[in-house]
Design brief:
P_dom, Aminopeptidase, binds calcium ion, 5-stranded antiparallel sheet, alpha+beta, 10 helices, metalloexopeptidase activity, Jelly Rolls, 2 domains, elongated, protease, aminopeptidase activity, binds tryptophan, binds zinc ion, secreted
Length: 442
Amino acid sequence: MKISARLSALLAVSALAAGAFAAAPATAQVAAGTGTAAVTPPDISLTNVKQHLADLQSIATANGGNRAHGRTGYKASIDFVKAKLDAAGFTTTLQTFTSSGATGYNLIADWPGGDANQVVMVGSHLDSVTAGPGINDNGSGSAAILETALAVSRTQFQPTKHLRFAWWGAEELGMVGSRYYVNNLPTTDRSKISGYLNFDMLGSPNPGYFVYDDDPTIEQTFKTYYAGIGVPTEIETEGDGRSDHAPFKSAGIPVGGLFSGAETYKTAAQAQKWGGTSGQAFDRCYHASCDTTANVNDTSLDRNSDAIAYAVWNLASGSGTPPGGGTVFSNDTDVAIPDGSTSTATSTVNVTGITGNAPSNLAVGVDIVHTWRGDLKVDLLAPDGSVYALKAANVSDSADNVQTTYTVNASSEVANGAWKLRVQDMYSGDTGYINSFKLTFP
Ligand code: TRP
Ligand code: ZN
Ligand code: CA
């Protein structure tokens, strides 16, 4: 589910408490045709999240029915998540600790780039209790942040802030892994964490929609997401100290998170607004052997997964400074290209806040998905309509896709305004779409 630019803009101007998570001053990624600066978070695939849950279930089944600290199912879970992140380009670190006489593991995954002095951290505990496979508690949070991390890689998201994901060990023994991480983090590194977002139980079968009431900016980000999809939320009141945000909070780091409910019963009023069954626990299989893949509510898991992506993109994006410096404006909305036609497809990026003219080395990022790319003639249009040819059609070029960055001398153009990528497909048969269009001002 994508969120309107209007809501993102609203978020960007939300008030801040002193010392709280510093929200983005202005967002630089631009949604299609809106004219409003706004980041566009991806829709997290429920199918993919559920596949990760099915894999965690298989791991439990193959390892005596659980994924608990000190058991083989825990290490197998860590190895599973780590392999996916390594393949996606994350820098992963396995941190070991000892608890109750057994080795425990935290997995830390850093996404290269962003401001190392402003870290947005996202975490979930990966261990289960010994009683069962721990699919809602907490395969759900673990799978949702894994898929969010993979979406960061897929979209090659370049946030202003540095992004770090974490899967904690031995939460069920009293937040042992996350406390170990925080305690062993040098004070200077602690102060670089702008915010820690925790996700523990996101797919409760009789779900509630709870937002932690800690850092006001993080809390408002989640509330804005939920307001955008018209789902009421409640403040999470029972959770302080009950999950991995606690050690971060104790260290003075702004925290927030989401929760769909555990052993507490749903009230009649809650059933009224959220559906489900009143007088019954949010999760009747909490810490039990029946916490399997059957113990997950898809709607709750889907909404919470999308809410994570929404928060990560908004809280980390800031002014869109890529690792090499500069300001990025992009449009990630797909635009179909009419096949073999004189009609063209255009994608628009609205540039704002740049003084004077465009540079002589304007970087024009083009991502077009199309078979037989020789069909395509691609131009950049400046705000005043001036045309810069990026690529001519060439009927003998049979390769797929145009995925490259062109450097354009645009120094005679005023920078601010609506820049367009215009694509014409000259020959019928092969088809495709504009996947994204991005301008980087150095
Ligand atoms: N792992 C947590 C626990 O067993 C799950 C939990 C229960 C929770 N209630 C919560 C997490 C409230 C966050 C907030 O205690
Ligand atoms: Zn838990
Ligand atoms: Ca064609």
